[in-house]
Amino acid sequence: MITPPTQLRLVVETEDFDAALAFYRDALGLPELEAYEGEGGARVVILSVPTATLELSNPAQVRLIDEVEVGHPVARPYPLSIRVAFEVADAAAATTALEAGGATVVAPPTLTPWNSLNSRLDAPGGLQITAFQELGQVPPS
């Protein structure tokens, strides 16, 4: 086994760089760590998220999450189904702010069986995202 990585970077290529930057930095509130420009109009901005996890899901789990959050399949086609989830303090307020920031709401905040409030959005730059609010322990059934 190698020494575990110390950082996860999700690199997103987008045609509408300015719209994506405004969405993730300004609407979602991710702090800008670094920015670089290169020859030929090359640009990159590195935004920070306090913590990251890598969630691996099989196709059945992806379908289950779609059903819970949206009510029907909306994930990008396998084998390139990538969705980025951001934990927020208030899923309803975040969804409203992200929509105002340029995202398209796919599904409003929805209570999940794992007791989180999740909304699904198509974000500028081409990613599908989930804004989720953890509500605590799953209530007893």
How would you describe the shape? globular
Find the CATH topology. Answer: 2,3-Dihydroxybiphenyl 1,2-Dioxygenase, domain 1
CATH homologous superfamily descriptor: 2,3-Dihydroxybiphenyl 1,2-Dioxygenase, domain 1
Count of separate DSSP helical elements: 3
Strand content: 25-35%
Radius of gyration based on Cα positions? 16 Å
Could you list the spans in which at least 5 consecutive residues all have pLDDT below 50? none
- Biggest sheet overview: 4 strands, mixed
CATH class annotation: Alpha Beta
Which architecture per CATH? Roll
Mean pLDDT: 90
- What is the count of β-strands? 6
Describe this entry's structure for a reader.
- The structure is a single chain.
- A four-stranded mixed β-sheet has the order 3-6-5-4, with helices on one face. A two-stranded antiparallel sheet has the order 1-2.
- The longest helix is centred in the first third of the chain and has 11 residues, at 17-27.
- The N and C termini lie far apart (41 Å).
- It has one domain: Roll (2,3-Dihydroxybiphenyl 1,2-Dioxygenase, domain 1), CATH 3.10.180.
- The protein is globular and about 60 Å long.
- The chain has 141 residues and is α+β, with helices and mostly antiparallel strands.
- The protein has helices at 17-27, 59-69, 91-100, and strands at 32-37, 43-47, 83-87, 104-111, 116-122, 128-134.
Give a concise summary:
The protein is 23% helix and 27% strand. The chain contains 3 helices and 6 strands, in the order αββαβαβββ. The chain has a 4-stranded mixed β-sheet with strand order 3-6-5-4, covered by helices on one side. Strands 1-2 form a two-stranded antiparallel ribbon.
